[in-house]
Amino acid sequence: MTSLLVVGADHLGNITDKLIDSGFQEIIHLDGRKVNMVKRDIPEHVDIVFVMTDYVNHNLAKAIKQKAKSKDKPIYFVKRSWSSIHSVIEKIEKRK
Fold first, then answer.
1. DSSP letter string, 1-59
2. Is residue 72 classed as helix, strand or coil in its secondary structure?
3. CA distance linking residue 86 with residue 44, whole number of Å
4. pTM of the predicted model, to two decimals?
5. Average pLDDT, consecutive stretches of 10 residues, N- to C-terminus, the chain (96 residues)
C-alpha cells in the first residue's frame, strides 16, 4: 500500500500519522466541503480510496464511488475513527 485518497472530514488529526505507520507513503485528503469537490477526479497514482461517511454528503460519496469504479480503484466507506479505519486496513492486508 503506497497511496491513499481520503475524502471527507475537515481534519484528520492523528489519523494521518497512524496511516503512515500502517504503511501508506502518501495520503491525499479532500475535505469535501466545497461544491466543486464533486468534479475533482481521483489521481491515477492513488491505490485505495477511503470515504469518511460521517463527514461527506451523498452526492460527493456517489460521485467518488462512480469514479473509483470506473478507474478500478478499491473504495472503502469508513467512519472517522481509528478503529473503523484500522479494521478496514486489516481486511485489506488479509486479502493480499
1. --EEEEES-S--TTHHHHHHHTT-SEEEEE---SGGGGGPPPPTT--EEEEEGGG--HH
2. coil
3. 24
4. 0.91
5. 88 93 93 80 94 87 94 94 94 85
